[in-house]
Amino acid sequence: MQHNSRWHLLETADEVALAVYDEILEAAQEAIKRQGKFKLVLAGGSTPEKVYKLLAKSDADWARWYIYYGDERCLPVDHAERNSLMATHCFLENVAIPEAHVFTMPAELGPEIGAKEYREIVINALPFDMVLLGMGEDGHTASLFPGHQHKQDELVHAVYNSPKPPSERMSISAEALSSTHQLIIMVTGANKQDAVNAWRSGQDLPVATINPKNTIDIYIDKDAFKS
Fold this sequence. Notes:
CATH class: Alpha Beta
Shape: globular
Number of helices: 6
Order of helices and strands: EHEHEEHHEEEHEHE
Number of strands: 9
CATH architecture: 3-Layer(aba) Sandwich
């Protein structure tokens, strides 16, 4: 398990979403005060979706926000399973973040070309101010799956043979996701218990490969955390 992690145990997934939402707004204010902009990496999934719906109703200095994605499925731009489509509907189309500040992964071009194009964007973005991640029941995070090998020094990976469909994806690398001022991992639901126990006992899961210099904040609900 990451040596520098803080676990925040909350009752429900809704409480996790609310706590993370508060953290994001605070981080945005600090980053904007510090450097005039806030660079945020979004995650897919049901708990992040709750967070985005809260953000959509809030007030922030949206003109200074810059949005990136941790991973994406290689599907058409308007496909319902795209992380970018979910984030757009729940959040981005409801706030005044300039379109030029939203860096959608070009996953529709396929894993290789998409990853190559996004590497240029990530190089110019690092370090991020905040990275949001979830964790799957197999311990995967973004589209970094157990047993998959990637080049260590790549900033964005082409992903093939995903155990969850679609099999082709692209993902920011563990190294690049670790290059962030703040890292938040959200874990909710009873189906995550086994992965959480494996993670806490130090097993080699993809989620454990993200190691920023600063403390990792893990927000988890009672269902996922079985002590």
